[in-house]
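retry 2 of 3: previous attempt timed out while embedding magnesium ion. Reduced batch size to 1 and resubmitted. Inputs unchanged:
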Amino acid sequence: MSCTLHGTGVSGGIAIGRAHLVSHAKLEVAHYLVPLHQVAEESARFEAAIYQVRAELEELRAEIPATAPPEFTAFINLHLMILSDATLSVVPRQVIENEQCNAEWALRVQMDALLAQFDEIEDEYLRERKADVIQVVERVMKALSGQPGYIPPPTRDDAEQNLILVARDLSPADVVQFKQHQFASFVTDLGGTTSHTAVVARSLAIPSIVALHRARQLVREAELVIVDGAQGVLIVDPDDQVLAEYRRRQHEFEIGRQKLKRLRDRPAVTLDGVPVDLQANIELPADVIEARENGAAGIGLFRSEFLFLNRPDLPDEDEQFEAYRKVTEDMGGMPVTIRTYDLGADQHADPGRVITNPALGLRAIRLCLTEPQRFVTQLRAMLRASHYGKINVLIPMLATAVELDQTLTLIEQAKRKLDDESVPYDRNIQVGGMIEVPAAALALDIFTRKLDFLSIGTNDLIQYTLAIDRTDDTVAHLYDPLHPAVLNLLAHIIKSAAKSKTPVALCGEMAGDIVLTRLLLALGLRQYSMHSAHLLDVKQVILGTDLSKLRPLAQKMLRTPDPVKLRALLERINA
Ligand code: PEP
Ligand code: MG
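retry 2 succeeded.
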């Protein structure tokens, strides 16, 4: 059935292809038919998952310390019993075979049947055991997926380039996995525009939309869909006329992209001769290729936490060292700013722990400082890699002087230890801090006194200033980089940094938004770091900017509370 859905575009461009439904939430599963010759394999996949979960639970039981309360063992025994119930462990195999469906679906159907029986039970204790059934099924789902964000094979023989993934929600870890694929696009029902999921989506340079609300429900597997990433529009089952129009637009978009490539080696300088430093944000070492293809003058933000995702263990010092060294070497002497891991918010450090308010919780530097050993491992890896190029260390989410002092002490200790071991490192390595908490922005002196540089993380700065959860699509419309509080905070940071002669960059999503390029220039920003896909667009704007005319307009914007007048002023800046 033809229909059009509106969401929030997070990465521009147009994709036309077949929908492929994927799941992330453990119990939100896709239903698809398994070809007859693969049914036995599907059934074996299910059996292996049950086996794996049984082994996991038995291992958990064996590890319970003797001092633990007896309920612990009883709890695991209960889960083992639920797992052994034929409804969950045997009947799904019959469902797979009879209905030729995927294992997840068969399990889900059986779980629903079992839960319905629980509803009939009078005994309250037994009725409450529903939650245990769900937990056991979640474990099996996880084992079935092998990893979060498991992408089931498509039902048709479509090449990945023709597939548009449709999901209810995806985690940043899921999306970063897409880097190994070549999907045409992805769209989700949930998610905010500056969530890490959206941030990584932009780095894939494929059109994508979040907050569509009902796409997963309305779109069917293999249905033809159009994704207009710039407008945030998803067209399902378009007619021939609409299809032809979007093919034309897609072609034009591609021509525009090709033309921009000519700017790759042009220095980014305004018409009145002001040079601007344009660097790239990356998540993985392989992203350097794209950064170089788009003429990045360095890596302004390496989100090192992505090295920690999608794996059961932690990368050790040598593995991290190799990753950091590779990035610096591949950047051929250009600066590489590596952010120490920022885990704990929408990129969970500990998926087993329920956190009420992760963005305000034990995240980023707070988490690092509670795990000094893990943190020092990373610092040592960075220091060692600094011998092979120009590495800067960037500390995320600083809010207090104590955090900064503790971090600097740990860096000093790591240096002394390397000295003792005669391991070389860059003795002039620069240490910078991310300004993404309003408290840090307002008390900037605490940080400029002791740091070599600053980098403004507007994604978080806006989240914390306007009190809007980055990951929550229901408040995504409130994300507003032009809010007077945000603009004045930015102006304050840039001005105070200049006064203390501390270099300041901006590495949030604002840096790659061409609508804001000139305004930021006029506020005094000279260093931008963004996903590679935006570098040439931003450079094009800079090349056509006469800065001398813009400063008064930007100053006026800082004094204008009225949103309509603000937009009008911005239009004049961009005219
Ligand atoms: C930011 O907060 O703006 C930023 C660049 O960091 P991240 O998006 O990884 O939180
Ligand atoms: Mg941040």
